[in-house]
Amino acid sequence: MDQRTPWEFSDDRGRLAVAGDRPLRIVAYIQAGATLWDHGIRPVGLFGSQHDGAAPDPAKAGELPLAEIGYLGSGGALHPDTLLEAAPDLVVAVTYDGEQVYGLEPKIALELEAHVPVATVAVGPGRSLAGVRERFAALAGSLGCGEPLGRARELDAAEDALRQATGGAVRPRVLALSPAGLERVHLARPSSWPDLRALTEHGVGLLEPAGGAGVNWSTVGWADAAALAPDIVLMDVRANAARPEQLRSDAHWRTIEARSRLLPWNPEAPCSRRAHTRFFTLVADTVRETAGTA
């Protein structure tokens, strides 16, 4: 008698990922893998994006034990045979546009999907942070895992603390950015990022950069960023972003650094209650401290 239970998951590209049994060996885009880890799922392999290099980006890895999980490559150096050598039952990734598998070139994704089911969760513009979190939870649940029940209470408490911190008379000016170097900086458009939009919904005073062609970012010089006079800067901590010490020869950056509180911001953080609780708590504490010293 066949004891196998067919498994399926309708992903955010509108495709049905199907397997003859519940997948156990999962290869994942590193952000997705970090999210699954928070739900009790251990990937057997990880891959990065075109922005990553030959080693995994610790900022995207969350609590993953990187020394114990194979990193299979990133961008143009990633070959489908390398992914298949890990013998996955399922590949989990994210999508920003609801069509492309982020981190995989289209031809590689197509070749991979001919051999193994691929499931994506949409994390781009138009998605709420809670909605992204729930989709990952649904995927993890289909795989037989989930976050501890206490995490929901912790997240509720963190959201309450954030709303209380932003409800005072003083509302700090918050700017999210990704430094590209001494010449340019990418200013985040809050409406395009689920985590930033969630902050706005909880009362955080996020600054909106000037209009332009970029959907997610407005790319400007440091003078334009300094002119926004932020009190708090959410600063991209991914490996492809420049570090503060690399920027200090620029007077406009020094102005920002002198007047602002710098907070780490990961645009590709794990999409779990655990990660979001930490993020909201950090922002709430900083908003409260900043408002108290204004």
TrEMBL record:
> Could you tell me the superkingdom of the organism this chain comes from?
Bacteria
What's the protein name?
ABC transporter substrate-binding protein
